Amino acid sequence: MTADPYPGYAWLREHDPVCAVGGPHVAGRMWLVTRYDDVRACLADRRLGSRAPVDPDPHPPGLSNLDDPGHARLRRLVAAAFTPAAVSRLRDRTARTCARAVDSFAGRGRADLVAEYTREVPVAVMHDLLGIPETERAPAADVLDMWYRAKFQQPRDEVKLTELLGYVRKLVAYKRSHPGDDLTTRLIESGALTGDELEVMVMTLIGAGHITTIQFLGTTVLHLLGHPGRRAALLGGDIDWARAINELLRLDSPSHVAEYRYAGEDMTIADARVGEGDVVLLSLAAANRDPNRFPDPGALDLTRDARPHLAFGHGAHTCLGSHLVKLETEIAITTLFGRLPDLTLDIPSGEVDWGYAPTFRGPRALPVTFTPSVSR
């Protein structure tokens, strides 16, 4: 992922909004869609399916790779855990998680905020939601390594996939013998999932619960480090948190491209003739900077009403965890800058290394310095 892909997106929106592209391990044609109206329409178009016509994966598909009615069935099983009311009950636990993470480096005066904060918090929050005690969890770095290499490395890292499946099976087995007031227990007790479906669901939730939030938290910290006046206004209550977070999601969407869509029939997108079986990539990041939808789209305006941005998608596959992402972000940012108000990026912003995995964008590291703070 380049440090700044947005000029390229702008050129495509203007000159080739439904562009034929190449892709690894994809048979047939692939199209990249970049204009807001086209992307939003495609996200809701049921002719574009989420399941590959020929899928060699022997495991049941997860939420993001399944169409209705199967998708609706699985989504209903977990939706109640991600409503605004349910997420609000995680506030105190999330605040404690953020405080412990800051405590781990606050006394040093120096830290890498990605490795020590924006990576640790989302993984811990999702494990808490699933009811996995700390004694049963792998370190966050190991979970991420298993996930990224199993999901994104091409050809797929079968060793890491086996490790990831083994880890998830261990967690599910633990919850079968240690039920509690948590999402995994409710899924088990529902009896609505086969053993394989349950494991894939837990694996999907662990991945979905951290994969975008890590990117978004890191990018948000970077933006706020570079805009101290706006940061002060936000932390001081002069800017609405919900509005600010929506603008940050719009400006730098953590998922630059939605999950693959597969054309179920011949169709036309804008002026492009898309054939049955073709892969369609919907660029959320390009759509969210479409000047025909958002004036001056490259500017950070925390008072802007950025809805309806597409960072969480649109339609049947709209991200279930959107409320959780927003809660985590508000608490993580408030905790971090509240404890360490003089945080300073230790490298020029232009030298930040962007990456993580294909289609996702976030800083790999954020070295900072600050006045040491005594742990609370």
Automatic annotation (TrEMBL):
Per UniProt, what is one Pfam family of this protein?
p450
Lineage, top-rank taxon, reads Bacteria
Q: Which CDD domains match?
A: CYP107-like
**Does this UniProt record's set of keywords contain Metal-binding?**
yes
Q: Which UniProt keywords apply?
A: Heme, Iron, Metal-binding, Monooxygenase, Oxidoreductase
Which protein family is named in the record? Belongs to the cytochrome P450 family.
**PANTHER family linked:** CYTOCHROME P450 YJIB-RELATED (PTHR46696:SF1), P450, PUTATIVE (EUROFUNG)-RELATED (PTHR46696)
Q: What's the protein name? A: Cytochrome P450
What is the organism lineage in this UniProt record?
Answer: Bacteria, Bacillati, Actinomycetota, Actinomycetes, Kitasatosporales
